[in-house]
Amino acid sequence: MNNQQMELKIGWLYPTLMSTYGDRGNVICIQQRAQWQGFNVQVIPLDLQASVTEIHQVDLLVGGGAQDRQQEIVMRDLKGAKATALREKIEAGTPGVFTCGAPQLLGHYYEPALGQRIEGLGLFDFVSKHPGIEAKRCIGNVVFEITASKLAEELTAMLGKPPVIIGFENHGGRTYLGKVEALGKVISGYGNNGEDGMEGAFFHNAIATYSHGPVLPKNPFLADWLVKTALQQKYQTNVELKSLDDGLAMQAREAMFKKLGVSELAAY
Ligand code: GLN
């Protein structure tokens, strides 16, 4: 089977409500990189009116950040059959990248700055709490090394070195992990809560992170991992990606590592 015969369907969760922090760049990045590889790509917006069938047909999921109010609306919608469909997809290994507000909703609950606790899907074993409007938000560039074992192993094989992610965080909520594996170890920045040195979570093939940026154009190898994993899962065959010219992204990474004083890690 050649690349032109393969199709990647990207499910974009709640684009109208959960696009406050520019994470749409992740959708564009996956779409473009997959097209450069010759795959056919379809972006399927999974907004309020999306059906369960639409959720079932996607090969890869992207969820972006939002403000507390929008998160509440989404959680009122993401119930019953829709919630089950999303849970089944993730548990079956559909890869995804969920940023900031999106993972807060996939955990047990999110306590916003004001108002009532929002119950989440309980897919990821973690809770998120906003300490209140007086509390300082966690804002700034963030650098972390991916430590989630399966992902770290696969990315190290791809890159020939440990995967270091650079992004930008902007959150009031703090996340505390239960038994779920952390996505990574913070090198610079706050990560999940600014206390325990952990960042994000990894469950089956789903990546939860506080890292905007958007994260994928800044770390294109992660986009490639998502594309490869999604298509291998769908077609049950090995998918090899050709290397793309990431010179500009690499220069941007080097510049940011230098600025943050972590240039010795600018291995990638
Ligand atoms: N509303 C959430 C918080 O402040 C999420 C913010 C975001 O998605 N960047 O924690």
Automatic annotation (TrEMBL):
Keyword Nucleotidyltransferase: no
One Pfam family named in its UniProt record: GATase_3
Active site as annotated: 100 (nucleophile), 212
Domain (CobB/CobQ-like glutamine amidotransferase) ranges: 9-219
EC number(s) recorded for this UniProt protein: 6.3.5.13, 3.5.1.2
Pathway annotation from the record: Cell wall biogenesis; peptidoglycan biosynthesis
UniProt-annotated binding residues for substrate: 137
Family annotation (InterPro entries): Class_I_gatase-like, CobQ_GATase1, GATase_3, Lipid_II_synth_GatD
Domain of life assignment: Bacteria
UniProt family annotation: Belongs to the CobB/CobQ family. GatD subfamily.
Assembly mode: Forms a heterodimer with MurT.
Function, as annotated: The lipid II isoglutaminyl synthase complex catalyzes the formation of alpha-D-isoglutamine in the cell wall lipid II stem peptide. The GatD subunit catalyzes the hydrolysis of glutamine to glutamate and ammonia. The resulting ammonia molecule is channeled to the active site of MurT.
Protein name (Swiss-Prot/TrEMBL): Lipid II isoglutaminyl synthase (glutamine-hydrolyzing) subunit GatD
Taxonomic path: Bacteria, Bacillati, Cyanobacteriota, Cyanophyceae, Oscillatoriophycideae
